[in-house]
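Team,

Forwarding the record for the chain on the shared tracking sheet. I've put the sequence and predicted structure together so nobody has to dig through attachments.
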Amino acid sequence: MVDFLARILGMLAVGLTAYSVLPVFDWDSLTAVLPWRLVVGLVGGFVGFTVTPFVTTRPLRRGLDSFASVPSGAVVAGVAGMMVGLAIASILSIPLLRIEGWQGWGAPLMLSFVLGFGGLLLGVQRQRDVPGGGASVAVRRGAVGDAKSGARILVDTSAIIDGRIADVAQTGFVTGNLVVPRFVLDELRHIADSGDPLRRARGRRGLEVLNRLRRDARVPLEVLDAELSEGLEVDATLVQLSKAEGASILTTDYNLNRVAEVEGVRVLNLNELAHALKPVVLSGEEITVQIVQEGKEAGQGVGFLDDGTMVVVEGGRRHISERLGVTVTRVLQTAAGRIIFAQPKVG
């Protein structure tokens, strides 16, 4: 809608301007002039309708998106530096105002621009260089305010997309404060805007999970103004941020899990939690399982428990699509999980 309104305004502005600036020659007949002015005005209107969004609304939208990702600390430091630069420029410009001609206003204007822009850059740079500045300042401020409510847990993109954290949080087992760094939120937004339908669906699911967590008052959710460290990826920056502040990392990423453990960072892995919560089944125990498919060996049937554990039933092939009472004979632990072997219950 905004782009369409911009196109209409651009069409009117460029079309009327083109119609007005065409010189009217002193010809005997106005009919020879008016068609040409009308043609130029229509061409100008078409150009304005086509080009206006590309030079107005779209660059403005990209600029606002970029500005939204800038940490608030950097904005404050930059504005403070610019104000100091402009104040110095005002003092130095007093003698220059006595000069006659364009130099009397041109030199102070140039001095204000140079010192104001220089102060802006210097303020942002020094804010990043000061120990505890940037992302660390935001983390420490939050840690002081949340010290009584529990530990801080940095949430990885994979854990957000996974979605189970929202269900776990609703049970009340999460006692800490969930913290989503700004660079993780940016990565999630890029995934949601991906051209790949699968990645886009995963990203949008992650955003919905964050909305669920934000609506749940039992677990505080905080978005942390932290930007990516120069030369580091998201996982490396997350580990660096966790080490600096003594926070844990919540993830489902196996590689991030191992890297964080090597760095001495405490990791909360949702996959390991799900594995630990699987019910213990012992040899000789009787269970009921739905036989859904054939097994690898002759006569075997395969079913699954509610938690996804595979149950291989000897002689269960003829009971496919049936619920069958079985007796556990042995439990095999593999790298992919547990496999339960059983046989039909006698009697």
